[in-house]
Structures are given as C-alpha cells and as structure tokens.
C-alpha cells in the first residue's frame, strides 16, 4: 500500500472514461489498497482510480465510518432529487450545492470478482454517484447550475493550486468534460 498523488482539475485523465476491469488479480487488490490509503490520508469520502491516474472503473468510499470499494459499478438511481453541498479531492477547497438522486443502488464487484450490491441513501447515494461520474469522465462541476458553474470556474482560475500546476509545467486546461457541452445537470 502506498499513498498516491491525487490528480487535480486540468489533468486529462479526469475527463477520460475509465476502462472496465477484467483482471481481478494482485495488482487490482493493490490498487484498491492504494486508493483506500490515499482517500483516508486526504481525507475524503470517496476516491476513484482516475483521480490517482489509473483509468480503470474502480472506486473506494468512506461514509458513516464504513469503508468500501466497488469495481465496474452500474448505478440505478431513485426518482427523488436532493440538493446538497459537494466537494472533490481533485478540486481542493471547492464546494458547491449539487443536485443528486436521494437514493442509489450500485451493482458491481469486489476486488475478488464477487458480485456486490450497495444500497445508498442521502450522503452514501451522493458519494456513489459522484465516484461513478469520475469513472465516466464527468466532474462534479459539470452538474452545477450555469450560474454556479461560472462562479466555480472563476474560483478555480484564481486558486493557488490551479495556478501552481501552470508554474510546474502542467498545462491546466480550463475546458471540462465533453459532457458539460450538453448541459448535463441532474
């Protein structure tokens, strides 16, 4: 297990849909361990593999003192929507109200390839949706209202962490996921 660097907004890996996991092997178990350790150290409520530069459909979560992971998730969302504050480890200190389904059922696999079903409400449902979005190359700012998105982009452009990427040679792309072009808000 080792703590990995969390990729920040501007890194293309965050905008790329992740590949299905096909090998449930020792390397996958190490990835789950690294994700978990990195998430806990950050600290965060969830972390997806693309956020540490690995383009695979894997994420971990830590909600209500319960740790978990899910591989190749498929979500079924409830009809009721709630608005709540959301942040992301790839956007340090950025928090905005985001609309999400109040309930979510996630089906996938554990690190040993065994089927898993996770039923989440409220914050766990929000975390399952947020992390699955990462696996699809969708960022939480893509879920903001147009007004909040403008404010968020201004805040990002003025942030120390975003500008530090440019100084260190990483070209921080202002563009977001291609999905944002279609106004994909819940």
UniProtKB/TrEMBL annotation:
Entries under Pfam families matching the protein: Pep_deformylase (PF01327)
GO MF, one example: peptide deformylase activity
Listed HAMAP family: Pep_deformylase
NCBIfam families (UniProt xref): pept_deformyl (TIGR00079), PRK00150.1-3 (NF001159)
Family affiliation: Belongs to the polypeptide deformylase family.
Protein name (Swiss-Prot/TrEMBL): Unannotated protein
Annotated organism of origin: freshwater metagenome
Organism lineage string: unclassified sequences, metagenomes, ecological metagenomes
């Amino acid at each position: 297990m080792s703590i990995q660097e969390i990729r920040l907004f501007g890194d293309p890996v965050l905008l790329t849909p992740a590949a299905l996991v096909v090998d449930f092997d020792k390397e996958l178990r190490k990835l789950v361990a690294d994700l978990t350790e990195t998430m806990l150290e950050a600290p965060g409520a969830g972390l997806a593999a693309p956020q540490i530069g690995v383009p695979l459909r894997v994420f971990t979560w830590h909600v209500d003192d319960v740790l978990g992971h899910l591989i190749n998730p498929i979500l079924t969302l409830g009809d009721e929507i709630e608005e709540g504050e959301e942040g992301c480890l790839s956007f340090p200190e950025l928090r905005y109200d985001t609309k999400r389904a109040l309930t979510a059922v996630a089906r996938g696999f554990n690190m040993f390839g065994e089927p898993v079903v996770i039923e989440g409400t409220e914050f766990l449902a929000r975390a399952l949706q947020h992390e699955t979005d990462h696996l699809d190359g969708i960022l939480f700012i893509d879920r903001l209202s147009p007004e909040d998105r403008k404010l968020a982009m201004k805040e990002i452009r003025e942030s120390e962490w975003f500008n530090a990427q440019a100084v260190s040679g990483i070209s921080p792309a202002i563009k977001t996921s291609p999905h944002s072009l279609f106004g994909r808000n819940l």
